[in-house]
Design brief:
The chain is mainly alpha-helical. It has helices spanning 21-34, 36-47, 53-64, 80-88, 92-116. It is extended.
Length: 120
Amino acid sequence: MFKKGVRSKPAGRKRGATTTRVPLMRELAEMIVTDPEVQAKLFEQARAGKLQPRLMLEFFRYHGGKPPERVEVVPPKTDSAELAALVGQLSKEDRRALADLSRKMIALEESSQDARGPQI
């Protein structure tokens, strides 16, 4: 019978402990990902369809860890004078395109705020 709060296998592997396989896989992945000759051979096999794509993903995962699910892009902090100087370096055509894009983005933002209604 199970008792609340009592683990069924108290002598089991500790949480966070890795098996002997994990360090070996990391070492193998390191060799594969950093060796240009091995990379070339693997990509050649992948292009020919002789290599499972999942295998490549696992090598990269063991080498660098699981990639983040979401990436947050933070715009650089620049003041108005810096932005004006950067825009001044653009060609006339690029400045016109940037202005058009800015107007469209502002219009989209305003229309999405109108659709949401007043913010409290």
